[in-house]
Amino acid sequence: MRRLLILMLTAALLSVACATTAEGALPSGATTGRAGEATAGTGLAAPGGTTTKPAAPLGSSTAAGAPADASTAAASPTGTSTAAAAPAFRGSVRKLYPALRSRMRGASWHKGCPVPLRDLRLLTVSRYHWDGDPGHGWLVVHADVAKDVVRAFKHLYAKKFRIRSLRLVDRYGADDNKSMAANNTSAFNCRTVSGTTTWSAHSYGRAIDINPVQNPYVRGSVVQPDRGRRYLDRDDVRKGMIVQPGPVRWAFVQIIDWRWGGNWNSSKDYQHFSSNGR
After folding, report:
1. Residue ranges of the alpha helices (H) in the chain?
2. Is residue 247 domain-resident?
3. What is the largest CA-CA distance in the chain?
4. How far apart are CA 168 and CA 187, in angstroms?
5. Residue 126: phi, psi to the nearest 5?
6. Contact, 158 vs 91, CB < 8 A?
7. DSSP string across 119-152
8. Owning domain of residue 205
9. Is the residue at 177 inside a domain?
């Protein structure tokens, strides 16, 4: 009798164990969803019993449901995309170094000029190129106005005003017409006012011409440089133009108290700013 009871108890225990295993098993590759549900698995089994998503196609996002060309760039801490900030404005004033003096003699400066070379300063200032990239350029002005001109260019840089070229006029043989034709912004150049024997304000280092093509000199039918004819309509404002109101006029008239040739009556010199209004 004792043996029979032992056999019956053993059989009962084996029956219960088999039933539990059958009910708790999941199909191969399946994962659990809501409690008690079996869900067909679409991922590969990972070590530890968890699942991983299949590798995404090359060039596509790994986020579920994202289009193949979705961006995978990491978000910034604030949740917004960030762009590299432009370099801070830099402006320097220095005396003319010997090699520059030699280059200027017989070109932008010569004997008889109303200002000696020792009174001139070389400026290096930040500016925005025509394509919008930040860079720098050079000017020669009188020492007395050097810091003011740097202040004006700092404002232009803050407003991202585009300047086509910013080189010393000596690069063009101190030829004002060639400098204008090249759309070059320049300051000091010891020369007379066209058609007169009067020294230009440029001869004193107290004037600047900015983007001459977009801001030509106009007197009757005369337009200099000739390419500036495309910009005679001053209401059609385009890149590099000096208009009123605008950042360039504000920088030179409001900030450093210069005068603009665009306000002249008998002629218009839209590129020209000077400390004495001439």
Report:
1. 2-24, 98-104, 146-158, 176-181, 247-249
2. yes
3. 141
4. 8
5. -70, 150
6. no
7. GEEEEEEEEE-TTS-EEEEEEEEEGGGHHHHHHH
8. 91-274
9. yes
In a domain, 137, yes or no: yes
φ/ψ of residue 153, rounded to 5? -70, -30
Read off the pLDDT of residues 52-92 as tens digits, 9 standing for 90 and up. Answer: 333 333 233 333 333 333 333 334 444 454 557 889 999 99
**Cβ neighbours of residue 126 under 8 Å, at least 6 residues apart?**
87, 88, 89, 90, 91, 134, 135, 136, 153, 154, 157
Residue 155 has pLDDT above 50, yes or no: yes
Domain assignment present for 38: no
Domain count, the chain: 1
Alpha helix (H) residue ranges in 68-216? 98-104, 146-158, 176-181
Q: Which two tokens stand for residue 76?
A: 């910034």
When pLDDT is averaged across residues 30-42 and rounded to a whole number, the result is 36
Burial string for 183-211 (b: 16+ CB within 10 Å, else e) reads bbbbbbbbbeeeeeeebbbbbbbbbbbbb
**Over the stretch 96-145, which tens digit does the pLDDT of each residue have?**
999 999 999 999 999 999 999 999 999 999 999 999 999 999 999 999 99
